[in-house]
Amino acid sequence: MDLDIHKSPNFKGYTALLGENTDPNGKGDLHEGFDIGWESDQAGCEHNELPRDDGAMSGANVWPELPGFRESVLGYYHAAVQLGRSLFPLFALALDLPENFFDDKTTKPAAIMRLLHYPPQNPSKIAEDGSVIGIGAHTDYECFTILWQDSVSALQVQNNDGKWIDAVPIPGTLVVNLGDQFARWTNDIFKSTLHRVINKSGMERYSIPLFFGTNYDVLLEPIPSCVSEDEPPKYEVVTAGEYVKSRLEATYSHSASGS
User: Residue 240: which of 220, 212, 221 has the closest Cα?
Assistant: First the structure.
């Protein structure tokens, strides 16, 4: 089976080094990855049915013929999905909304997971403009990104002063970043986390992000309590699926046209 993500109509499969470009000002991302979407695990879980509308990621996953790989990956995937579900009630309370406010909007949530490998970069050869790094500066598409990372420090997030801060790995923890869908929903009360990856450690780096969002047919229009005369809506209203598809097409079109 061909695993090349550029030959997949639903953005699943393998991405080679420089096979995508998250930053339009960059020359490609120095990592390789493997992407999957929703799939039942054989052991069964609470929400094992297939989504009615998986949007841009609809269709079956593709898997390499490696014994135990699919089972191990899906085991972690479903555990991370359950964690993602538990975040929405917390944010509802933070916004002074009913705890179940997001329940009907996340019955079939988007859940894209990536397995990522970053080769080491020679610090003396990293372009000062950052045109070729692990992943260029970007925000994520969905509501939450739940990130497992190994002990190699390479992730950086930008603070409100525009400075890049190292997100140093802490053993036994996960990183949770906010994404564009939630920023649009809350009219930037909660903002997307601008971040990048530069692996200057001299070692291989591995990470597993799960991008957890809403049903793809949900309109990304601001929650009424998040807009006012002083804070009018900041974004055009689109469905979650339309937004994710446009971002995925932009990410992979640059690399496909140059391959």
Answer: 220
C-alpha distance across the termini of the chain, in Å? 21
Could you name the CATH architecture of 12-257?
Answer: Sandwich (2.60)
pTM: 0.85
Q: What is the pLDDT of residues 143-180, one digit of tens each?
A: 999 999 999 999 999 999 999 999 999 999 999 999 99
Q: Which two tokens stand for residue 80?
A: 């991370």
Dig out the tokens for 176 from the structure.
């949770």
Instruction: Give the pairing type, strands 135-138 and 175-178.
Output: unpaired
Q: Which of 40-44, 117-121, 124-128, 253-257 has the highest mean pLDDT?
A: 117-121
Distance CA 179, CA 190 (A): 9
The residues spanned by each domain of the chain are 12-257
Neighbours of 41 (CB within 10 A): 16
Is residue 179 exposed (0-12), middle (13-18) or buried (19+ Cβ within 10 Å)? buried
H helices of 197-239, in order, are none
Residue 127 in tokens: 């372009």
CB 244 within 8 A of CB 182: no
d(CA 193, CA 200): 21
Residues sharing a CB contact under 8 Å with residue 195, sequence separation 6 or more, in sequence order: 137, 138, 139, 155, 156, 157, 158, 167, 177
The DSSP secondary structure of 152-196, one letter per residue, reads: ---EEEE-TTS-EEE----TT--EEEE-HHHHHHTTTSS----EE
Tokens encoding 144: 């939450």
Across 231-249, b (16+ Cβ under 10 Å) vs e yields eeeeeeeebbbbbbbebbe
